[in-house]
Specification:
two-stranded antiparallel sheet; 12 helices; 329 residues; binds flavin mononucleotide; 4-stranded antiparallel beta sheet; 2 domains; globular
C-alpha cells in the first residue's frame, strides 16, 4: 500500500480526526438550524407561526379522539390558542386559519354534546369569527368508524388500504393481541428499502407493564397509554453509516417504521406512531432505562393494541395535493 493510501485510510478512520470533521459538520448544521428551525423568530415568520398553531390545533383534535377524553378538557389551551390566532391574522391577514377555526367549532360542539357549555371559550370563539371570515369549511375533528369496515379496507387495494389507517387513541381492551401477529408484521416490514440495503432497523418489543413504562416515559399518549398492549421501539444502528450519511439512519429507520405501521394495520391491529424526538439527555436516559445500545438511534415508538368494534379517530386534515409538490422545468 502506498504512503498516500495509508494516509487516506488514517484520515478516514482515525477517531480524533473524525471528531474534528464531525464538529465542522455540526457547526454547519447548527447555523442552518439556528436560521430555519421553528424556534427562531417564530412570531415574525408565517410558516413557523402557522406550524406552532397547527401543532396546538391538532392537540385539541387528538384530545377529542381519546377513548376516555375528559369532558371540558383543555379550555385554557384553547383560549391561549384563540389569542394567538388573533395575533396571527393581525400579522398575516392573507393567511388561512380555516382548520383551527373549524377544529375549535367542533371542540365546542363536542363538549356541548356532553353537557359542558364553556361560555368563555364560546364568547372568545365568536369574537374570532367576527375578526376572521371562514373561507372553506373543513371536515375536521373526530370521525366515528366501524372495525368491520376497517378490516375489509385493510385487505383492499393500496389506495383504500392506506387511507383506512389512522392513528388510534381509542383502543379496545377485550381482545388480546397475538404476539405472532407482531412478529408477522415485522417479518413483512423487512421489505422496507434502505440505503445500500443496510437494513439498520430493529424493533425492541415491550409488552404489558414494560410497554406501559416505556409509554409513560414517552409522554405523548396520556389518557390512552394503558389501553395499548405492546410498544415497539423502532431504532436504527448508526454503526453502519459514514460521515456524509449522519442522518441516513433516520431515513432508513423511518421507512421501516412506516412499512411496519402498514403491516400491523394489514394484520388487523390498531396502532399509533409516537415520537422519540428528545433532547440528548432524555435520549440518554431512555437508552439507560430501557436497555437500548448507545449505537442505536431511536426512530419512533409504535403503540399497538386491539380495535374496538366502533371507535373514533382524529381526522388530521391533509393539505391539498398542490402543497405537496413543486415542478422544476
Ligand atoms: C413520528 C411521529 C410521532 C408522533 N407522535 C405522536 C405522539 O407523541 N402522540 C400522539 O398522540 N400522536 C403522535 N403521532 C401521530 C400523529 O399525530 C398522526 O400521525 C398525524 O396526526 C396524522 O394522522 P393519522 O396517523 O391518523 O393519519 C405521531 C406521528 C408520527 C409520524
Amino acid at each position: 500500500m502506498s504512503l498516500k493510501d495509508k494516509l487516506r485510510l488514517f484520515v478516514r478512520h482515525n477517531r480524533v480526526i473524525l471528531f474534528g470533521r464531525l464538529m465542522f459538520e455540526a457547526l454547519c448544521e447548527t447555523c442552518s438550524h439556528t436560521k430555519h428551525l421553528g424556534a427562531a423568530d417564530m412570531l415574525s415568520d408565517e410558516v413557523k407561526f402557522a406550524a406552532d398553531l397547527r401543532i396546538r390545533t391538532h392537540a385539541i383534535e387528538k384530545g377529542m379522539s381519546i377513548g376516555s377524553a375528559r369532558v371540558g378538557f383543555g379550555q385554557p389551551k384553547v383560549l391561549a390558542l384563540i389569542d394567538d390566532l388573533f395575533l396571527f391574522i393581525r400579522k398575516f391577514p392573507t393567511a388561512s386559519i380555516d382548520e383551527a377555526v373549524c377544529v375549535i367549532e367542533r371542540y365546542i360542539a363536542y363538549n356541548a354534546g356532553r353537557g359542558c357549555d364553556m361560555p368563555e371559550v364560546k364568547a372568545r370563539y365568536e369574537q374570532l369569527l367576527k375578526a376572521y371570515k371562514l373561507r372553506t369549511p373543513l371536515n375536521v375533528g373526530i370521525r366515528e368508524l366501524k372495525y368491520s369496515e376497517t378490516a375489509e379496507a385493510a385487505q383492499a387495494s393500496f389506495d383504500v388500504f392506506s387511507h383506512s389507517r389512522y392513528s388510534i387513541r381509542d383502543f379496545g381492551t377485550d381482545t388480546v393481541v397475538d404476539f405472532k401477529d407482531i412478529i408477522g408484521a415485522i417479518d413483512m416490514a423487512r421489505k422496507a428499502p434502505s440505503a445500500c440495503n443496510r437494513q439498520p432497523a430493529r424493533a425492541h418489543i415491550f409488552k404489558g407493564e414494560a410497554a406501559h413504562k416505556l409509554l409513560d416515559f414517552q409522554g405523548g399518549c396520556k389518557g390512552f397509554a394503558n389501553d395499548m398492549q405492546y410498544a415497539l421501539l423502532v431504532t436504527a444502528d448508526m454503526r453502519q453509516y459514514f460521515i456524509n450519511e449522519r442522518h441516513q439512519m433516520y431515513v432508513d429507520g423511518g421507512l421501516f417504521a412506516m412499512e411496519l405501521l402498514f403491516s400491523l394495520h394489514y394484520k388487523g391491529l390498531a396502532t399509533i406512531p409516537l415520537t422519540t424526538s428528545y433532547k440528548s439527555m432524555k435520549t440518554r436516559r431512555m437508552r439507560k432505562e430501557f436497555d437500548i445500545p448507545s449505537y442505536e438511534v431511536p426512530i419512533m415508538i409504535i403503540g399497538v393494541g386491539a380495535f374496538k368494534d366502533e371507535y373514533k379517530v382524529a381526522v388530521s386534515h391533509r393539505n391539498p395535493v398542490e402543497d405537496y409538490y413543486c415542478e422544476h422545468h
